[in-house]
Amino acid sequence: MRIVVTGGAGFLGSRVIRALLAARGRKEGLPAFESILSVDLAPCPVEDPRVSSLVGDVAEPGFAARVVEAGTLGVYHLAAVLSGQSEAEFDVGMRVNLDGTRALLEAARATGEAPRFVFASSVAVFGGEMPEVVPETLAPMPASSYGAAKAMGELLVNDYSRRGFVDGRVCRLPTIVVRPGKPNSAASSFASGIIREPLAGVASNLPVPRETRLWLSSPDAVVGNLVHAMAVEGARIGPWRTLNLPGVCVTAGAMLESLARVGGAAARALVREEPEERVARIVCSWPGDFDVARPLALGFTRDGDFDGVVRQYRDEFVR
Amino acid sequence: MRIVVTGGAGFLGSRVIRALLAARGRKEGLPAFESILSVDLAPCPVEDPRVSSLVGDVAEPGFAARVVEAGTLGVYHLAAVLSGQSEAEFDVGMRVNLDGTRALLEAARATGEAPRFVFASSVAVFGGEMPEVVPETLAPMPASSYGAAKAMGELLVNDYSRRGFVDGRVCRLPTIVVRPGKPNSAASSFASGIIREPLAGVASNLPVPRETRLWLSSPDAVVGNLVHAMAVEGARIGPWRTLNLPGVCVTAGAMLESLARVGGAAARALVREEPEERVARIVCSWPGDFDVARPLALGFTRDGDFDGVVRQYRDEFVR
Ligand SMILES: NC(=O)c1ccc[n+]([C@@H]2O[C@H](COP(=O)([O-])OP(=O)(O)OC[C@H]3O[C@@H](n4cnc5c(N)ncnc54)[C@H](O)[C@@H]3O)[C@@H](O)[C@H]2O)c1
Ligand SMILES: NC(=O)c1ccc[n+]([C@@H]2O[C@H](COP(=O)([O-])OP(=O)(O)OC[C@H]3O[C@@H](n4cnc5c(N)ncnc54)[C@H](O)[C@@H]3O)[C@@H](O)[C@H]2O)c1
After folding, report:
1. Reported ipTM exceeds the 0.90 cut
2. Residue A166 alpha carbon to ligand 2 centre in Å
3. What SS3 string covers B131-184?
4. pLDDT tens for each residue of B278-299
5. Which of B127, B137, B148 faces A139 most closely, judged by CB atoms?
6. CA nearest to A131 within chain B
7. Is the CB of residue B159 less than 8 Å from the CB of residue B108?
8. Which residue has the higher pLDDT, A194 or B83?
9. Whose CA is nearest to atom 32 of ligand 1?
10. Which pLDDT value is given to residue B274?
11. Distances from the Cα of B188 to the Cαs of A15, A121, B192, B213, B266, in angstroms?
12. Phi, psi of B138 (to 5 degrees)
């Protein structure tokens, strides 16, 4: 009677595991799991007797069947090759993000128990010309191979759900800021960097124009929403299982203003503005604002304003 | 210097091959091919010294690389497991419609020549609630595994095109009527049956309500559009390569009226109306009308009225 978390060693995965442990028995609708299995290329950093860690590659043939066994109440599929690397290494990205997702869905199907299956997708499925506010019915036209593989994963999770193979929930996550730690291969990595680095007294670069709108969420808000995604009744979501998770719409310029207000003028002065074509091309293809009435009605939540997001990071990691 | 046609033994494939032979040197933009290779589980019925036939399974590992070799000017990927069978046999459908498409794209990529790649998709990618007229930006929410696999194929063709691996063109075909021959596994098979059978003096069934709107095209119009899809400049289509091919919006009831006008009251009387839930569920999830301003501006065409479609069939196959 366990919950499986692929990518359980990662930024979100490890936080989701901690949040699940805290929510167990408290959060309505959350399956009453006995244990959590982290599945990742790296061991899970969460130390708790209820958490075990399986190190391996979700896309390796045969591996997924060992991961999702009978008695699995739910699966979080968070393991992924992020956007920068997926663009640089096409085959690696497709193998992990498409084949890995399919292998896990097949393993879930093979249990015959239709476990809940939460898939982390991304606003990177969108591209091309975009309306000011993205409706739920906007066609994914990804401008990156990462977005393309995520969009295919969404279709798989939906079809597996329609057929009753899994009870799927696709969460298109906003860009998450502020990520602690080091920059990563995601094209959106700068969005955390321009807050995190200056608050640590380190220089950083804004590679996109100031007027670029970003759709953002704090780690806490996203993790809370991922726990909620496992807890909510599938029938309440309806037959189509893809949700644009709530976020806040902020321009890059407004982020720098929040940095100045929360971190001071010296921190703000550490951010230079040198355009980087590779990053701008990917990030500017993502939409800046969404109609999230339905997910909000389903109980998903979002941050207040962006100053609060910066303060959340500063209070936890800087002081 | 050849064109490859997968599904070349099929209904559309064999017609596309004949149309290509006729259009060569006449149709502006059409690559000046020397030969055509049909690839299908069955041998190609077209007898012409320029046409050769390779019998095999496009989803068989290693086979696609033999199919798309250096010097391939263009690929039509028409081989597919149709909607009825894909719903009944999930694994077969995914293997052919998803893995087969991917294998061909990989083979095309391996040539390093970015050949034109025309992919036959379908309005079956759509599902759920639909606006009266479908815009180009409507999200695919397939209500069948056939539609899901086609939607994934569309994403692959677009990403391979964006990366310069192929020069793709995705054609979402309307339902084609009147297909000569026998009923097939497609859920839309009745749409041809209710015209074809009565014109041959045979009884037929309408399994969906009369008010069901269908998005239809004659074989001639679709084949002409598929030839055009190979001929049109990729740059004219723009970065997103998916097109809803023009069709005509007709209700099932209006189809029966056309039958009565063109085939007579006796023919009309041969159609009974017994609802079939399995068929209705799939077909009623498909949209009935589309905004096709852009494809029309790109030179794609459609039939006049539905009476003409019925006459086209009667004149070619009944008399
Ligand atoms: N953080 C964001 O802003 C954001 C936004 C949208 C979507 N997402 C998605 O959320 C999920 C988690 O993202 P994150 O921010 O925690 O990233 P992360 O890189 O910190 O975590 C991903 C984890 O997946 C693991 N992994 C990669 N390939 C693997 C494989 N083949 N087999 C097993 N494990 C593998 C990595 O080791 C890593 O621990 C990803 O699916 C990501 O695409 C994140
Ligand atoms: N006819 C329509 O109304 C319609 C509508 C929308 C889309 N389409 C699409 O158009 C394409 C052609 O359809 P059609 O009407 O000619 O169907 P068809 O069944 O007559 O032709 C499909 C051909 O593919 C071949 N095939 C199937 N699996 C194969 C495999 N694994 N390897 C090699 N060949 C294989 C079959 O032998 C057949 O000859 C298909 O992709 C179909 O999905 C058709």
Report:
1. yes
2. 29
3. CCCECCCECCCCCCHHHHHHHHHHHHHHHHHHCCCCEEEEEEECEECCCCCCCC
4. 888 888 878 889 999 999 999 9
5. B137
6. B137
7. no
8. A194
9. A57
10. 96
11. 48, 33, 8, 12, 24
12. -70, 135
Close Cβ partners of B238 (under 8 Å, ≥ 6 residues apart): none
Selecting from B137, B145, B162 the residue whose C-beta is nearest the C-beta of A159 gives B145
Q: For residue A148, what is the nearest residue in chain B, using CA coordinates?
A: B155
| Structural domains of chain B in order of their starting residue, each with its CATH number | 2-174+218-244 (3.40.50.720), 189-214+248-289+303-317 (3.90.25.10)
Which is nearest to B173 in space by CA: B118, B223, B117, B123? B123
pLDDT > 90 fraction of chain B, expressed in percent and rounded:
91
In which band, very low, low, confident or very high, does the pLDDT at A317 lie, cut at 50, 70 and 90? confident
pLDDT number for residue B151: 98
Instruction: Report whether A56 contacts A9 (CB < 8 A).
Output: no
Q: Is the pLDDT of residue A319 over 80?
A: no
Smallest Cα distance from B130 to chain A, Å: 9
Nearest C-alpha to atom 23 of ligand 1 is from which residue?
A7
Ligand positioned closest to the Cα atom of A85? 1
Q: Nearest by CB to B152, from A127, A155, A240: name it.
A: A155
**What residue has token string 């250096």?**
B70
Residue of B nearest to A238 (CA): B128
pLDDT by residue (tens digit) across A73-97?
Answer: 999 999 999 988 999 999 999 999 9
Q: Is the CB of B36 inside a 6 Å radius of any atom of ligand 2?
A: no
Q: Is residue B310 in contact with ligand 2, taking CB distance under 6 Å?
A: no
Contact flag B240-A128 (C-beta cutoff 8 Å): yes
Ligand 1 interacting residues, C-beta cut-off 6 A = A 6-7, 9-13, 40-42, 57-59, 78-82, 96, 100, 120, 122, 173, 175-176
CB contact under 8 A, A239 and B151: no
| Nearest atom (ligand 2) to Cα of B173 | 6
- Asked whether residue A281 carries a pLDDT value surpassing 90, the answer given is no
Q: How many CB atoms lie within 10 A of CB A132?
A: 9
Question: If DSSP codes are grouped into helix, strand and coil, which group holds residue B203?
Answer: coil
